[in-house]
Amino acid sequence: MEIASYCQRHILVIPQALGALSDVSKVVSYNGSSLYFKDLKQDLLDVEFYTNQLCLVFVEEGSETLTGWQNNQIKLTEGQGILLCQGQNLHSDFVKSTQDLKAWLVFFDKALIERFLLSIAVSVNRPNTPTGSFLTVDHTAVSGFFRQLSSYLDHEIRLDNMLDCKLTELLHVLYAVCGEELRALLQMSELALPAKRNLYRLLEQDHVLKLSVSDLAKLSGRSLSGFQRDFKQLYTQSPKQWLVKKRMEYANRLVSQGQMCITNVALEVGYNNVSHFIKAYKSTFGETPKQQALKS
């Protein structure tokens, strides 16, 4: 399985992929910046996405949980938002309790960010505060900004020609609320560093068992040594040991189901050589796949 093919099928690159989603509508797009509105009425779990631009997610109603690459969870509820640095991989989970999820997605063009950074560099001369790859926002001033946007749309006021001005205003509001943390995040976003993916979420999927350890490292956004280090911290064993164990567990399920021939089972779990697969299977379970299939 090619890594690029896997990524294309399993990662939502935003904002580019949002046009294909029925529950997300584009409000306006101008000069590289864009504004979307998300209205989810059904549960939507484990959606992995990659931010191709600086992105602000702001929840108007309901709640949403985002999980980062270190398996850290951020729950956003009504009136809360998160500003995500460009180049981030996260997982989104929405479980409907009583309310639908209504949220704004704002994407900022690089040129707009550069102009904003120049404007605050002139007026403010303070050192940057260290920050992570995201910034949580919970302030009535930000809520008021989005209420104003909603009012414009309710009165059918077009936002095309004012989008640059409104997003610049939004950045100034965020700067008033967040201070130098915002500047640091925007400068980090300019670097567009490669994204690390959440190992736990990535590796719990059966599809990845076809890949080699080096391919898994690339897919996770890490060097091979970085992948092995992070992996051992999470699973307390080497990636190779884990991969063989998981392949055999998956193979055992497929053999017990009896819907695939042994050759296809071997290919499905990442073995191109059937005899090597049979040897590994017997070493693990004490019998060959065929013997197991006859018992099922």
TrEMBL record:
Which InterPro entries would you find in this protein's record?
Answer: AraC_XylS_family_regulators (IPR050204), ExsA-like_N (IPR054015), Homeodomain-like_sf (IPR009057), HTH_AraC (IPR018060), Tscrpt_reg_AraC-type_HTH (IPR020449)
Q: Does the keyword DNA-binding feature in the UniProt annotation?
A: yes
Keywords of the record, alphabetical order, are: DNA-binding, Transcription, Transcription regulation
- Give one GO molecular function term: sequence-specific DNA binding
Question: What PROSITE patterns does UniProt report for this protein, alphabetically?
Answer: HTH_ARAC_FAMILY_2 (PS01124)
Give all residue intervals belonging to the HTH araC/xylS-type domain: 197-295
Q: Which domain of life is it from?
A: Bacteria
Which SMART domains is this protein grouped with? HTH_ARAC
Q: Which residues cross the membrane?
A: none
The protein depicted here goes by the name: HTH araC/xylS-type domain-containing protein
* Organism from which the protein derives: Pseudoalteromonas luteoviolacea S4060-1
Q: What is the lineage of its organism?
A: Bacteria, Pseudomonadati, Pseudomonadota, Gammaproteobacteria, Alteromonadales
